[in-house]
Amino acid sequence: METSHLGLSVPRSLLLCILYLFTSATRGSFSGNGCGKPLQSQVQLKGRDLLTLKNFTGEEIQYMLWLSADLKFRIKHKGEYLPLLQGKSLGMIFEKRSTRTRLSTETGFALLGGHPCFLTTQDIHLGVNESLTDTARVLSSMTDAVLARVYKQSDLDILAKESSIPIVNGLSDLYHPIQILADYLTLQEHYGSLKGLTLSWIGDGNNILHSIMMSAAKFGMHLQAATPKGYEPDPNIVKLAEQYAKENGTKLTMTNDPLEAARGGNVLITDTWISMGQEEEKKKRLKAFQGYQVTMKTAKVAASDWTFLHCLPRKPEEVDDEVFYSPRSLVFPEAENRKWTIMAVMVSLLTDYSPVLQKPKF
User: What is the DSSP letter of 75?
Assistant: First the structure.
């Protein structure tokens, strides 16, 4: 098809290309990809649930990180407005309080033109005043997706089974996938690539460690994890992580010695020793975790390019000020990246958008 104007015959495809270049230039968004068309990916996540990274391939997780980098670049650095979620609403169920999960999700979803609806235990009682099945069906009729921050992973599984919309795990007793996406984006930005990095976990065998174990090997990352005796990760998750390591040619080391886990590690990682719901165990846990504080002594046995991650909130017994506030600490970029990664999750599950930014090297 050609368009004729003032006696000139111009192919319609060329006109569209010129129009895109012009609009992209005026918006400051042209990325130099041919005619400016978004880079197309073979990965399609629309309509999926995100309950655990166990259910996603390395390529699919890479896609979410690529999309995170794309949105961050276009919105934060280029100043573009991308109403990709305009007209869509998100139900946010919070059985556990949060700073980063709530702020990142509310501000991120709204920034993309959507409407987030925050629901606490005062607003919605999962499985108490109304069954999980009924709640799932009601939410499916009124919202486009649900992010749930809950105590039990089994509640998320039921919500996902009974819902006709995507369900996203905002945290559970077993997994915290959206935190790990932010961690990986932070490391990608700092190191330029994830492949070959050694992650050194020093702390509790909790939902954060479980999520790392379900994904690190898929990027070619090694994992060395130290937990006190009696606080090891779930045996079933360890078994699956061993399988992933074997399939991807990576190393998985489980130990009770913090310095053994830190030795040669590129990334020192810890988390709270006392999660919400474990307050009665505080005295017992503090005793069990003696010697697990991350300090410069810990860093001395790490790799020369070591960095530090903590998903926050942080307590001094977990990591001292010298490490936490050092130039090697990435905790605050890590916190900010919670926003860009959750935005990418929502866009990937609810739209057909493809990134414009060149795909990073993973």
Answer: I
Q: What pLDDT score does 39 carry? A: 52
* 231 and 137 co-located in one domain: no
Q: Which amino acid is at 70?
A: D
- The span from the CA of 185 to the CA of 119, in Å, is 28
- Phi/psi of residue 260, nearest 5 degrees: -65, -40
Shared domain for 213 and 148, answered yes or no, is no
Residue found under tokens 């997706």? 145
pLDDT at 123: 84
Q: 285 near 274, Cβ under 8 Å?
A: yes
For residues 28-45, one letter each, b for 16 or more C-beta atoms within 10 angstroms of the residue's C-beta and e for the rest, the string is ebbbeeeebeeeebebeb
Q: Alpha-carbon distance 69 to 279, whole Å?
A: 37
Do both 185 and 309 map to the same domain? yes
* Per-residue pLDDT tens over the stretch 245-298: 999 999 999 999 999 999 999 999 999 998 777 777 889 999 999 999 999 999
Among 17, 35, 117, 311, the one annotated catalytic: 311
Structural domain that includes position 215: 179-272+282-335
Q: For residue 255, what is the DSSP state?
A: E
Instruction: Report the domain count for the chain.
Output: 2
The neighbouring-strand residues paired with 90 are: 116, 145
- Res. 27: pLDDT tops 50: no
- The answer to the question of residue 3 being in a domain is no
172 contact partners, CB below 8 Å, separation of at least 6: 149, 150, 151, 152, 153, 155, 156, 207
Nearest to 265 by CA among 291, 301, 235, 237: 301
Query: Tokens for 159?
Result: 């919500």
| pLDDT score for 15 | 44
Q: Is 15 helix (H, G, I), strand (E, B) or coil?
A: helix
Can you tell me the distance from the alpha carbon of 305 to that of 191, in angstroms, rounded to the nearest whole number?
Answer: 9
Sequence length of the chain is 362
State the average pLDDT over residues 139-167. Answer: 97
The SS3 assignment for 28 reads coil
For residue 234, the domain's CATH number is 3.40.50.1370
- Residue 98 shares a structural domain with residue 169: yes
Residues 287 and 163 in one domain: no
pLDDT for the residue 121: 82
Is 311 in the active site? yes
